[in-house]
Amino acid sequence: MSVQELEKIFLSKIDQEIKIEPKDWMPDAYRKTLIRQISQHAHSEIVGMLPEGNWISRAPSLKRKAILLAKVQDEAGHGLYLYSAAETLGTTREQTILDLHSGKAKYSSIFNYPTLTWGDIGAIGWLVDGAAILNQVMLCRTSYGPYARAMVRICKEESFHQRQGFDILMALSKGTAEQRTMCQDAINRWWWPSLMMFGPHDSESTHSEQSTQWKIKRMSNDVLRQKFVDMIAEQVKVLNMSLPDPQLKWNEQTNHYDFGEIDWTEFWNVVKGNGPCNKQRLDARRKAWDEGAWVRDAARAHAAKRKQRQEKQIA
Amino acid sequence: MTKDTIYNYTLHLADNALILAQRNSEWCGHGPVLEQDIAITNISLDLLGQARSLYQYAATLMNELNATPLPKGAPIANGEGQAGLATEDSLAYLRDVRAYKNCLLVEQPNGDWAQTILRQFFFSTYQFFLYQQLQRSTDATLAAIAEKSLKEVTYHLRWSSEWVIRLGDGTEESANRLLNALDELWMYTGELFIPASYETAAVEAGAGVDVTALKTHWQQRVNEVFAEAMLTDATAGRESTWMQHGGKEGVHSEHLGYILAEMQYMQRVYPGCEW
Amino acid sequence: MAIRLTKYYYGDIPEDKGGGQVNDRVMKSSSKEAGSPATGGSGDGADWPLWEVFIRSKQGIDHKHVGSLHAADAQMAIENARDVYTRRMEGVSIWVVESKYVHASNPDEAASFYEPANDKVYRHPTFYDLPDELTHM
């Protein structure tokens, strides 16, 4: 079959909402886009463990400690599901990780912001996980089977993450004046970075929407962002807190909230490595990897020895 | 049998579990490979769960002991909360170093993966035999907690034994690292089998476990696993090692102060808040 | 001025948009890792082998494929599967099989493999139109 014919079959599957599976023919660019997106997504989960993991040792109660520990551990699991999905496309996990460590592969910029107070742990759960979930729910219907399945599993597990974040903020909002200040301060610092998570405006694109045509991505950045703003603008009222945007206002005509402009200079700078914690995050990942090398080697060496002994016994 | 005895005994069991949970949780996000990052965090979560059950029980005991609640602002160094009532959190977050009764082994730094694994293996082996006995405690709550926890500990023991074997019989480097860990940790194993005053009292009351009787079981299991790890001679000649002790009576290594400073910081800076 | 802008999605920032992190030293250390197996991972320089995980969610139900993971040996694979895939009481039994031993049918042959079954409607009980009086069949 010619490439043109194969491509036609591929596109007709996409049109009919038939998932693409690992052994199916797919255009190289589709494969490349997926590898890049899935591994960025995986890296985001893994690097995302760091800002929150930072607070496990200091969680203010044993219950919060247990919840946070379970939550950060879930993120490790999510990274693992996603690395596995990427591996079905012909990459190895090791190569993917080395690309992260060399700075070649990206991860979500949000994790380059520091967690300064306990309030930040609440804000991350509520805003950052909230933003991520909108994206992830959409990705449950993505066209590549292993990616979609990983997302279904992740969404199922993530459902408690946003709640625990809101729950943390709720406790703060009902607490002392100091706690309420902590709550508002965390919201103020995490609001804009959360909006940035959805990426640049749709209008900034003159490029053909390959990802949408291939149904990897199924909603535009601005549509998702608007959904998020509409959702959070209502939820923040329950906390008796406010969002740090004077232009935030309900618009009767559009039936949506209007909101202010994102600082895109900051966005691109953080992406490029100039965020407050870029270096710290990557250093932590590289250190874990480098210091784990002898452990991985030992386990492999032991497995080989054991196998050899077994074979000897049989022979 | 006095409630005071059971209270102190329960706190000791809880402190062991909490401090090791706290130490293991430092690995979360920094493990040598993703799958093992998840595994060590699971162990940390199990231990944290055990600690919570035990603290909750200790808090109940203490509140019964102090039938008249202490006035607000009364001494909190013993772990009473603001209103004079003890809770799992007041016990964990408001006691200072000298009131902590954990053994020295669990507060030792993580070191490398070998040291963490060996610490876990030594402690899980001890906890395994301890909880087996504690299931038969005359104290129904302790017996129930032991029974539930034993399932978790059985897995920890399996997991850590396998890692000791893997490292001992892996590469030259991993075997050396394991031996270094043994040098670091061996001197803290003796304390596990020297009963503190409240342990002796708890044994007399029928509620506690005689730790002196666990030693042979522990030693045997350690020898078996070390043999499989090709380290048969590793513990030989170590009988004469001077064993550090004191942690169970509140005389700790300097490490515990830092662990508590970090762990308790929120409760200390914002006293009396709900989280 | 014609500026060609590309749309970047969350989780899909193109590689050439990076900058700050790629410096010479980092590149050197990473290429060293990739090139010299002794640091990055040794022997064959590869990950631990990949395993496929199958979980029985409760007694009486088939094992179902749930995902994959890396492990040095089968025992570790089972334990990793327990820690990774049954944290929420998802299972009572685990199978693992090294991924390289899974053989799969070829999607290109899907037509010849599966379509011939389409016209064998008589294999399904609903094909038969029986009198209503007949029970227990």
Q: Quick summary of this structure?
A:
The complex is a heterotrimer of chains A (315), B (275) and C (137). Chain A has 315 residues and is mainly α. Chain A is 69% helix and 2% strand.
Written description of the protein model:
The complex is a heterotrimer of chains A (315), B (275) and C (137). Chain A is an all-alpha fold and 315 residues long. Helices cover 69% and strands 2% of the residues of chain A. A two-stranded antiparallel sheet of chain A has the order 1-2. In chain A, helix 2 (28-53) runs antiparallel to helix 3 and helix 3 (62-87) packs antiparallel against helix 6. The mean pLDDT of chain A is 93. Chain B is mostly helical. Chain B has one domain (3-269): Up-down Bundle (Ferritin). Chain B has helices at residues 3-25, 34-65, 88-93, 104-107, 113-134, 140-168, 172-185, 197-204, 215-228, 255-263, 265-269. Among the domains of chain C are: 1-31, no CATH class; 47-101, Phenylacetic acid degradation B (Ubiquitin-like (UB roll), Roll), CATH 3.10.20.520. In chain C, 24% of the residues lie in helices and 15% in strands. Chain C is built from four helices and three strands. In chain C, strands 2-1-3 form a three-stranded antiparallel sheet, with helices on one face. The chains are: A mainly alpha (315), B mainly alpha (275), C alpha+beta (137). At the A-C interface, helix 2, helix 3, helix 4, helix 6 and helix 10 of A face helix 1 and strand 2 of C.
